[in-house]
Design brief:
Structural class: alpha/beta
CATH topology of the largest domain: Rossmann fold
CATH class of the largest domain: Alpha Beta
Order of helices and strands: EHEHEHEHEHEHEEEHEEHEEEEHH
Distance between the termini: 38 Å
Number of strands: 15
Strand order of the largest sheet: 3-2-1-4-5-6-7
CATH architecture of the largest domain: 3-Layer(aba) Sandwich
Largest sheet: 7 strands, parallel
Shape: globular
Length: about 400
């Protein structure tokens, strides 16, 4: 049971992303724009925001410093005057510099506090009255804060950063208690290591490092599913995230393909040529096609006929230009049973010299994994199995 109202359709929804110039904020804004949302991007750098608007027609930009209370209030008033509503407000502005107690810098510690936490309070001050009014009218209203797994416990070199993220987690959990009964959705997002300008400062190997595109896909998917609070990934336990097994490969070609499939959204289908060769061959139990346009049609059909389809890839075994993946395919049917379904399967890939897929063959049991999930056919298949085993 989702703890927040699931967001089924982004078309026309006004989304205010505060901290959208780079990193997770920028990637999430781009993905929401592709999904049809009216994205209002805010950050300090007006030039980067203008470039975002030019590349994403229909989006808007309001330059501001999140540490400036009046600037935040003015931006919210401008947004509401223009659109009459804020469907989702997300605070993802952030500041990070490694710090230890032996090299304590009070000015920088306070800078962390002002950007990471006080800026979020400024957003609350600016949008909470509007979100509550919308919820009372039965209109969509959602507040989301981007924190970090660094907020769960003390970490090396996180003396200034970690406490501000812990404060955001506590803030979001308390907000949820107050706002959920009123109909306002509240979520906190706790990324692990994501490849951004902030994490580029780290001199150590970052476990389970993911791209901003994949992070954005996970965030949007969480909002769409009404993800329970708090939303977190990847939380490390014994070296592996709780919700998936780390793929057993360090091959950059395969890791790129894995990330692309796990983050795949309807808007990404037109970019499949980035991971498939022009004359790539694709075969599964229902299709056998050649060429990127034909492969794109298969995935377009998948998104058109299923709700929330996504891949979770468990293992990757690589030998030369050959790769074998095991995965789960999760989805909801638009008719019949609305519970999330799971199909388990595997893929054999042959990679071209440039690392793209030249041959893609999927293997899964149609009878066990799909037909049994359909009401009429499923009953027949299960009856036949019982008869065969009697």
């Amino acid at each position: 049971m989702p703890l927040n109202p699931p967001i089924r359709d982004w078309k026309g929804r006004v989304v205010w992303m505060v901290g959208a110039s780079t990193g997770i904020g920028r990637a999430t804004a781009e993905r929401l724009h592709a999904a049809g949302a009216t994205v209002v991007a805010s950050a300090r750098n007006a030039q980067i925001l203008d470039e975002f608007v030019k590349r994403h027609p229909g989006s808007e930009a309001i330059a501001l410093d999140a540490t400036d209370r009046e600037a935040m209030r003015g931006a919210a008033a401008q947004l509401v005057a223009r659109h009459g509503r804020i469907g989702l407000a997300c605070y993802c502005a952030g500041h990070y510099r490694a710090m230890r107690a032996t090299d304590f810098d009070l000015d920088d510690a306070l800078r962390h506090q002002q950007v990471n936490y006080v800026g979020a309070l400024h957003l609350l001050d600016a949008v909470l009255p509007q979100l509550i009014v919308q919820a009372k009218r039965g209109e969509p209203a959602h507040l989301s804060l981007v924190s970090s797994v660094a907020g769960y416990r003390g970490l090396p070199k996180s003396l200034a950063y970690g406490p501000t993220k812990a404060a955001l987690i506590n803030l979001a959990e308390t907000l949820y208690l107050d706002l959920q009964p009123l109909g306002v959705g509240v979520s906190v997002i706790n990324p692990g290591f994501v490849e951004t300008p902030l994490t580029a400062q780290n001199e150590f190997t970052m476990p389970a490092l993911i791209s901003t595109d994949r992070a954005a896909a996970e965030i949007v998917r969480g909002w769409e599913r009404g993800h329970e609070l708090p939303q977190r990934w990847p939380v490390l336990r014994g070296g592996a995230p709780l919700d998936r097994v780390v793929t057993k490969t360090t091959d950059a070609r395969v890791q790129r393909i894995v990330e692309r499939f796990e983050a795949l959204a309807a808007a990404d289908v037109a970019r499949l040529g980035e991971i498939y060769t022009p004359d790539a061959r694709f075969k599964d139990p229902f299709n056998e096609v050649r060429g990127v346009p034909a492969i794109e049609r298969i995935f377009d059909h998948m998104f058109a006929t299923l709700d929330g389809p996504r891949f979770v890839i468990h293992d990757a075994v690589v030998q030369g230009d050959q790769c074998f993946l095991t995965w789960d395919f999760l989805f909801r049917m638009r008719r019949y049973d609305r519970r999330e379904q799971r199909v388990r399967g595997a893929s054999h890939l042959v990679l071209a010299a440039d690392g793209r897929i030249a041959v893609h063959r999927d293997y899964w049991d149609v009878a066990e994994e799909l037909y049994e999930k359909l009401p009429v056919v499923g009953s027949l298949m299960r009856w036949l199995k019982r008869r065969a085993g009697s």
